[in-house]
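Whiteboard transcription, Tuesday session. T.W. wrote the C-alpha cells on the left side:
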C-alpha cells in the first residue's frame, strides 16, 4: 500500500513538472468604456492587440457600475459583421503542445459560442471546434489544447474553412477569440473578462 501511494505521489510530481507555466494573462484596463478596444486597454506588458474582420473595429471595451462586481471586459454586441480579437507577444511565440491550455472567463448570450483562434508559424490561422456557449452569468472555461479539433480561419473575413488535421502548435504566434458572428446587442453577443494562456515560451 505504501509503495502504491509513493508511486502515485512520484507520478503526480512528474506530470506537474511537465505542465507548462503561464505564458500570459490579460485582464483589460480599469478605465471607462471605449469603442473600439485599443492598445491602451491591454494591461500585460509586451502584448500587442489585433482586431480582425468586418466587425473588428467595433469591439467594445465595456463596464457597468451595476452589479458592483461587473468586470472590465470586451463586448461584441455592436459588431456589424464577423469579428475577432488576437493577442501577440512582441518577443516570443508559445508551444501549445502537450498539456498546454487556454482558460478564460466569459459570458455569451443568444446563439453565440466563443471559440479559440491561433496564428501558426506559417502565418495561417485556425479556429477551434470547441466553444464556450451561452450562460446566465460569468463562468470559466478551459480549452485543453491536445483535445481540440481545428478548422482553417480566413482572418480577413473571420470565416471558418476546411478541417485542419494535426496543425503544428509548437510555435504559435498569436492567440485570440471569436464567435464567428455579428453582434446583436445584449441579447446576442459575446463577452470576455480575462484570458490566460499556459504554454512553453519559445523563440518567434
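and on the right, the sequence the group agreed on:
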Amino acid at each position: 500500500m505504501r509503495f502504491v501511494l509513493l508511486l502515485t505521489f512520484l507520478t503526480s510530481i512528474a506530470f506537474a513538472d511537465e505542465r507548462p507555466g503561464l505564458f500570459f494573462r490579460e485582464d483589460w484596463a480599469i478605465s471607462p468604456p471605449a469603442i473600439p478596444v485599443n492598445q491602451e486597454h491591454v494591461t500585460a506588458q509586451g502584448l500587442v492587440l489585433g482586431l480582425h474582420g468586418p466587425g473588428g473595429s467595433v469591439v467594445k471595451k465595456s463596464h457597468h457600475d451595476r452589479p458592483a462586481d461587473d468586470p472590465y471586459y470586451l463586448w461584441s454586441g455592436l459588431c456589424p459583421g464577423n469579428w475577432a480579437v488576437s493577442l501577440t507577444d512582441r518577443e516570443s511565440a508559445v508551444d501549445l503542445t502537450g498539456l498546454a491550455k487556454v482558460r478564460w472567463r466569459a459570458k455569451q448570450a443568444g446563439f453565440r459560442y466563443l471559440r479559440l483562434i491561433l496564428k501558426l508559424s506559417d502565418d495561417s490561422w485556425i479556429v477551434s471546434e470547441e466553444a464556450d456557449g451561452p450562460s446566465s452569468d460569468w463562468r470559466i472555461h478551459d480549452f485543453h489544447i491536445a483535445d481540440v479539433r481545428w478548422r482553417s480561419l480566413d482572418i480577413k473575413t473571420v470565416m471558418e474553412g476546411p478541417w485542419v488535421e494535426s496543425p503544428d502548435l509548437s510555435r504559435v504566434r498569436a492567440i485570440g477569440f471569436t464567435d464567428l458572428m455579428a453582434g446583436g446587442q445584449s441579447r446576442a453577443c459575446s463577452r470576455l473578462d480575462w484570458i490566460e494562456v499556459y504554454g512553453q515560451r519559445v523563440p518567434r
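Someone added at the bottom: The domain at 22-203 is CATH 2.60.120.430 (Jelly Rolls).
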